[in-house]
Each structure stands twice: as structure tokens, then as C-alpha cells.
Specification:
Blueprint: E1 3-4, H1 12-19, E2 24-26, E3 29-31, E4 38-43, E5 48-54, H2 58-73, H3 82-98, H4 100-111, H5 115-136, E6 155-163, E7 166-170, H6 176-190, E8 193-197, H7 204-215, E9 223-225, H8 230-239, E10 245-249, H9 252-262, E11 268-272, E12 278-281, H10 287-299, E13 311-315, H11 319-332, E14 335-336, H12 351-366, E15 370-373, E16 388-391, H13 398-401, E17 408-414, H14 417-425, E18 432-436, H15 440-449, E19 454-457, E20 476-477, H16 485-488, E21 490-498
Parallel strand pairs: 1-14, 7-8, 7-10, 8-9, 10-11, 12-13, 12-18, 13-17, 16-17, 18-19
Antiparallel strand pairs: 2-3, 4-5, 6-21, 11-20, 15-16
Helix pairs in contact: 2-8, 3-5, 3-6, 3-7, 4-5, 5-6, 8-9, 10-11
Bound molecules: NADP nicotinamide-adenine-dinucleotide phosphate and magnesium ion.
Magnesium ion binds next to β4.
């Protein structure tokens, strides 16, 4: 594993952006926290403070919810025509595109991910999510319904799909801007108003997006952005009785807390949670395509993906070849500062994540696993971990059962398909899975047997704004993206009247 060292120069806008304490967006104004407090966000490549940010807490959440409530109940957003809303969302996409390099640099600085990856993955995903949802704003329809029991008369009955109202959105640090887009775009398309809380580790790109929300002409109070800690700001948002719905992406553990907090006013809840996704390789797979696919499935975004292909199961005849191939690719990954264009893998997002991932590696060794490649922290400064393949693993080990959320894959051989499907499904999670085979019937058979919200056949990590994404079992509730997400942000109203 080589170390990359040369960083690209920051744009003037990004240098200025991080030099100033960033405020929060409430009711169209940039304001300090009511408490006056700020908190630091760090550059994980160095461990140094990157910028200071206003620290929102319960009072700021209350101010933001009041603004969103007013914008929803009395404001212009819902009253605009769908076409006008669509044009503003499309304009927001254009503005993000115009500032793409600034977003990519800021994301790399705050999260640690390679600038080159932010440019080709996070930014296009964000921009196209806004465009795709701008298209839906004008296509949210109800039905006319023939009644079964007409009671001697004739009725006209129809449904309307209306915005769910004020939505609290709580997002994680692994794709900070993209997660903001996944949340904001459908809320705006359906006519909801939002209070967004970014993760404490990575608040900067969501705040920059807030500036563009204003420039796009989206009215004051429709989008409020309150950075702060989960236990204070996040918990207050999830519990707030004037919030109609909470949409959360993060750990399963916190997802359960969100659910409890939401019970007070029975707000609607959607959850996109953790995973321990199986990636299944059969003897008849195209091994030359499978090896880089299996490596990318786990090492993309440093394994900090809820859908990371973190359990690799390989049919016995190909096991050694696939493990050797993935290990060789892992050993060539260049680790370094995300701003260096030659970096393949940056640091993990925080010291906490570094300790968490290294703790899992230790537990794996303790239980008898061995590293075929990597297996430890990289360097002494910054939060880097070597891409790691663990072998000698079994179903009882913590490294096989629990979400590590780092560049660590466990590799296990299998002998027959029934045993494999049982193993693949033997998890509390059900977010994603991969299947690698040239046998088309087997591929679709296995896909049908897997209890997972996404199954990728002969590919992995394929995301698209049009493709629903979400989890079975403890990986979540509801589906983001595609037309499915509209259901999370709308209520159905039945209207009927006698007409004869
Ligand atoms: P997390 O605690 O679930 O954080 C996700 C979001 O929830 C953040 O905005 C966080 O705010 C907020 N939050 C935390 N506690 C809250 C509470 N009591 N009420 C309301 N909101 C709350 O995730 P994490 O601690 O950053 O990461 C821990 C593990 O979660 C990872 O190792 C990984 O396994 C998993 N994870 C999964 C995903 C995913 O995409 N499914 C994403 C990230 C992490 P703060 O950041 O300010 O605390
Ligand atoms: Mg940071």
C-alpha cells in the first residue's frame, strides 16, 4: 500500500468557506446558535480542525421547526404550482453543478474521501437526484375510484396525494452531500418543508447547499439546516411534536432511538439503516470481472457504505483465486490525503471510526481470523486503515455478524447453494447483496431467495435516482429514490361525493 502525498490547491471559495465560522440556516437567515456555541469539524487526513460551525440544540431545532411549520401551513411553497416547484429544484441542480468542484473539495476535506471519487460519484449522484425529483414534482397524481357499495346513489370518488407536512431529516457522514440530496429532493418535489440535521463530523457541504437553496429561489423556511450533535439537536428533531415525519439514515441502534422519540406524536418514520451485505461468487462466474467487482464492493468509500459487500462467500473451487485476486488489488490501493489526485483511498471519517474498525480487527484476530492482506492502521497521523481481507472466518465471529463500516471484508468458502442462501440470509440486516455467475437462471433464482432490498447481479454498488433503495429486516423502513420514495413524503386523501 503506497502513500499518496500531493494535494490539489483549494479553490478560493473553499479556502474562504472553511476560514469562517459557519452559521445555521433558519427561516431564510444565516444565524448563530441560540446558545452562541460552536463546534469543530475536523479534516480526518490530518486530525486538524477544519472549520468551526454553529452548534444547534433543542432551542435552534424549535426555531427551525417553527419556521418550517409556518412555511408549510401559511407559506407559498405548497401554493406554488408543481411546475414552479419543479423549476426551482432543477435550478438547484444546475447551481450544484456550477459549484461542483467546490462541493467535491469541501467533501474531501470534511469526510476524507478522495476528491476524484467525490467528483465522479457524490456530485453526479446529487445533481441527478435533484433533476430526477424535479421531474416528479409535476407527476404526483391520485386515482378515480369506482365504489363497490353505491348505496342506491352514484358517487364520484377520487384520491389526492398531499405533502406529509414538516419533515425532520437526520443524515450520516459517509456521503454527506448525497444524503442531503436523497432527503431534500423528494421532500421538495412533494411540497414538504424541511429541517435537516447533518452529521456532526461532516456539516459543511449541507450548509453550502443551503446557500444554493436560497439562490434557487426556494422560499424562506422551506429548507432549514441545523448542524449539531445527535444526542441534542437530532434527538430534539425526532421528538418534536410539530414535526409530521422524520426521515433518518444512520446506524440501526440510533434508528431504534428515532422510533421511540417519534412515538410521542406518532409522526411518520422512514429509516435507512445498517447492513452486513453478502457478496456471493459461484464457480461459474466470470472471475476476471468478479475480482475487481468484489474489491470495489467493499473498498468503495473505504467500506463506509451501508450496503458494503462486507461478507464475501466464494464457491470452493474459486475461493483461493478470488481471495488472492481481491488481496492483490487491495495491496495496490494508494492510501493518502483525499485531495491528492493519485489517492485511491482516504482516511476514515473520524478517530472514533478508526478505533471502532481497529477494534473489530482485533476481535477478529482474537476469534481466529487471519488477514490475507492489510489488517491494521496505516501510518500514525490521520485516520487511515489498510484495506483488509479476513480469512479463517466463521458465522459466529463478530467480524462476520456486525457492521464494521470500514475497508474490511470477510471471505468464506461455500459448497452448495442452499447452504449459501441460508448463510447469506443469516443476519439481522437485509440491505443489499451481490451475485456473481454466468448462469442466468441461477442468478435470478438466488436473487429471489435473498432477503435484501437491493440485489446486484454481476455488478455492485450501482445506484440510480430511479432505482428504489432500502432495507428488509433491521436495515430499515421504506424505500428512498425511484417513485417509491414519493410514498414516504405524501399522505393519501380520499374524497367522495354523490353525483346522482
Ligand atoms: P449514527 O449515530 O447513527 O449517526 C447518524 C445520524 O444520526 C447523525 O446525524 C447523528 O448525529 C444522528 N444521531 C445520533 N444520535 C442520535 C439521536 N439519539 N437522536 C437523533 N439523531 C441522532 O451513526 P455514527 O455514530 O455516526 O456511526 C456509527 C455506526 O453507524 C457506523 O459505524 C455504521 O455502522 C453506522 N452507520 C450507518 C450508516 C448508513 O448509511 N446506514 C451511516 C453512518 C453510520 P451526530 O453525528 O451529530 O451524532
Ligand atoms: Mg470532518
Amino acid at each position: 500500500m503506497a502513500t499518496a502525498t500531493q494535494a490539489v490547491p483549494l479553490t478560493e471559495h473553499v479556502s474562504k468557506y472553511v476560514a469562517k465560522t459557519r452559521q445555521m440556516l433558519i427561516n431564510g437567515k444565516w444565524v448563530d446558535a441560540a446558545s452562541g456555541k460552536t463546534f469543530p469539524t475536523y479534516n480526518p487526513a490530518t486530525g486538524d480542525v477544519l472549520a468551526n460551525v454553529a452548534e444547534g440544540d433543542k432551542e435552534d431545532i424549535n426555531r427551525a421547526v417553527t419556521a418550517a411549520r409556518h412555511a408549510f401551513d401559511n407559506g407559498p411553497w405548497r401554493k406554488l404550482s408543481p411546475g414552479e416547484r419543479a423549476r426551482m429544484i432543477w435550478k438547484l441542480a444546475d447551481l450544484v453543478e456550477k459549484h461542483a468542484e467546490e462541493f467535491a473539495q469541501l467533501e474531501s476535506l470534511d469526510n476524507g474521501k478522495p476528491l476524484t471519487i467525490a467528483r465522479v460519484a457524490d456530485l453526479p449522484g446529487t445533481i441527478e437526484m435533484f433533476r430526477y425529483m424535479a421531474g416528479w414534482a409535476t407527476k404526483i397524481e391520485g386515482n378515480t375510484i369506482p365504489l363497490v357499495l353505491q348505496g342506491g346513489g352514484k358517487f364520484l370518488a377520487y384520491t389526492l396525494r398531499e405533502p406529509v407536512g414538516v419533515v425532520g431529516q437526520i443524515i450520516p457522514w459517509n456521503f454527506p452531500l448525497l444524503m442531503a440530496a436523497w432527503k431534500l429532493a423528494p421532500a421538495l418535489a412533494t411540497g414538504c418543508c424541511v429541517v435537516l440535521k447533518p452529521a456532526e463530523q461532516t456539516p459543511l457541504t449541507a450548509l453550502l447547499l443551503g446557500e444554493l437553496v436560497q439562490e434557487a429561489g426556494i422560499p424562506d423556511g422551506v429548507v432549514n439546516i441545523v448542524p449539531g450533535y445527535g444526542e441534542t439537536a437530532g434527538a430534539a428533531l425526532a421528538a418534536h411534536d410539530k414535526v409530521d415525519k422524520v426521515a433518518f439514515t444512520g446506524s440501526t441502534e440510533v434508528g431504534k432511538l428515532i422510533l421511540k422519540a417519534a412515538a410521542g406524536n406518532l409522526k411518520k418514520v422512514s429509516l435507512e439503516l445498517g447492513g452486513k451485505s453478502p457478496n456471493l461468487v459461484f464457480n461459474d462466474a466470470d472471475i476476471d470481472a468478479t475480482i475487481p467487482g468484489a474489491a470495489m464492493a467493499i473498498f468503495f468509500n473505504h467500506g463506509q457504505c451501508c450496503c458494503a459487500g462486507s461478507r464475501l462467500y466464494v464457491e470452493d473451487k474459486q475461493f483461493d483465486k478470488v481471495v488472492d485476486g481481491v488481496s492483490q488489488l487491495a495491496s495496490k490501493i494508494r492510501i493518502g490525503n483525499g485531495l491528492d489526485p493519485s489517492t485511491d483511498m482516504g482516511p476514515l471519517v473520524s478517530e472514533e471510526q478508526l478505533n471502532r474498525v481497529c477494534g473489530y480487527l482485533e476481535s477478529g484476530y482474537h476469534e481466529g481470523a487471519k488477514a490475507a492482506v492489510g489488517g491494521k492502521r496505516h501510518g500514525a497521523k490521520g485516520y487511515f486503515v489498510e484495506p483488509t481481507v479476513l480469512v479463517n472466518t466463521n458465522e459466529k465471529m463478530k467480524v462476520v455478524r456486525e457492521e464494521i463500516f470500514g475497508p474490511v471484508v470477510t471471505a468464506t468458502p461455500f459448497k452448495n447453494i442452499d447452504d449459501l442462501v441460508a448463510k447469506a440470509n443469516d443476519t439481522e440486516y437485509g440491505l443489499a447483496a451481490g451475485v456473481w455467475t454466468k448462469d442466468i437462471a441461477k442468478a435470478h433464482h438466488v436473487a429471489s431467495m435473498l432477503r435484501a432490498g437491493s440485489v446486484w447481479i454481476n455488478c455492485y454498488n450501482v445506484f440510480d435516482p430511479a432505482l428504489p433503495f432500502g432495507g428488509y429486516k433491521q436495515s430499515g423502513w421504506g424505500r428512498e429514490m425511484g417513485h417509491e420514495v414519493l410514498e414516504l413524503y405524501t399522505e393519501v386523501k380520499s374524497v367522495c361525493t354523490p353525483i346522482a
